[in-house]
Amino acid sequence: MNTRFILLNTSHAGNVGAAARAMKTMGFSDLVLVAPRWANVLRREETIQRASGALDVLENARIVETLDEAIDGMGYLCATAMTPRDFGPPTSTPREHLPGLAATAQNVAFLFGSERFGMRNEDVYRCHVALSIPTNPGFGSLNLGAALQLVAYEWRMALGGYAVQAAAPEAVPADAQALAGMLEHWERALVDIEYLDPAVPKKLMPRLNQLFNRAQPTVEEIHILRGVAKAMSQAAKKPKL
């Protein structure tokens, strides 16, 4: 399955860069521009700045003169339109329509019209569906880059999505030997600070053993606990003034 994003008659260079950035964040790279206002739009400074690092998408993008060239090899065409067209394809939200489309494994193209006029009726009529993003009825205007980002996100989710990455690497739990060594260290330190009487230890150490078994400390946490034990012993051995 191949996914293509097609921008029709784009007039603002910054929106091309924003589109490239939106595509890359969702893992897509096939961008085609049909008769943009600027022939050198892919190299304009504003385009590159708004791409924010998605330069590979811009480098691989193509500029063509006609929609026929842009949709070559695509099996399913999705228009993006705020207003349903008479005699046009059925209108649906991306979230309603895209999961079923993802299951068909077809090559899919998403078409976006110009910033000023949207998509022409004749271009919408060629599509299998018109995707409409639910917005505030009183203010439904969406920037081209924002609209593409929303559609790209919904399409990625329909394809299975990406796992959320953890903020930090998963901690490694300490093994039984490391835990036993830490407890021995703590036992000496507790004796040094006269909290534990070795002649009458009662069940202090077995209880601490159970506590740390439940806590399942990591290797890093064992190092911290050993550091605390070392500091307790050093403090206990300092001469009292």
Layout of secondary structure:
Layout: E1 3-8, H1 13-25, E2 30-34, H2 45-51, H3 55-60, E3 62-64, H4 67-70, E4 76-80, E5 91-92, H5 94-102, E6 108-112, H6 121-125, E7 129-131, H7 144-158, H8 176-192, H9 204-215, H10 219-237
Parallel strand pairs: 1-2, 1-6, 2-3, 4-6, 4-7, 5-7
Helix pairs in contact: 1-2, 1-7, 5-7, 8-9, 8-10
Q: Could you characterize the architecture of this molecule?
A:
The chain is an alpha/beta fold and 241 residues long. The protein folds into two domains: 3-158, 3-Layer(aba) Sandwich (Alpha/beta knot), CATH 3.40.1280.10; 176-237, Helicase, Ruva Protein, domain 3, CATH 1.10.8. The chain contains ten helices and seven strands. It has helices at residues 13-25, 45-51, 55-60, 67-70, 94-102, 121-125, 144-158, 176-192, 204-215, 219-237, and strands at residues 3-8, 30-34, 62-64, 76-80, 91-92, 108-112, 129-131. It has a seven-stranded parallel sheet. β1, α1 and β2 form a beta-alpha-beta unit. α1 (13-25) packs parallel to α2 (45-51). The longest helix has 19 residues, at 219-237. It is elongated. It starts with a strand and ends with a helix.
